[in-house]
Amino acid sequence: xxxxxIFFFMMGFDGMLGWAxxxxxxxxxxxxxxxxxxxxxxxxxxxxxxxxDRPNILTLPLLTVAFVIIAAGNDLGGVLSARPSRxxxxxxxxxxxxxxxxxxVAFKFVVGYGRAASLPAWGHWAVILSTTPLLVILCCLSxxxxxxxxxxxxPAVSAWxxxxxxxxxxxxxx
Length: 174
Hints:
By secondary structure, the protein is mainly α. It has 2 domains: 69 residues; 71 residues, no CATH class. The protein is 77% helix and 0% strand. The chain contains 8 helices and no strands. Helix 6 runs antiparallel to helix 8. The longest helix has 49 residues. The N and C termini lie far apart (61 Å). The model has no long low-confidence stretch (mean pLDDT 84).
């Protein structure tokens, strides 16, 4: 894909996203037909235009339509607002931080680099999928034990710090 094509695509993407988030699309993109369209666009981008490492010019519009529909408030028939989805959203930072380590351990120590190099694509996906449940459990523990305690302390710490900051931040003589 050329840089110029990507530039013009992104200009159109920004316009569509702005239009969607302005509220103009609100009634259009929150219903079931829009959810089906978003899921269809995602499926089409994944299934019709492989491989993912060399995106086709047609994948960008499909992904854009799906993204705009979701960004404008469609929860895909309740899937994105369901409790498991919200939980994955809570632990997403841990997933971001730990997925590379988990995949490294899986491919280096469990499968081995030599064997991993000869795996077909579906074999790599099988390793990734088999690593996922353990990774999600590890991320939930990381969230509960490492991330959540400081989040809970924030109001008390903020209340303690605020008067002290105001004292230092007030103008002289005030």
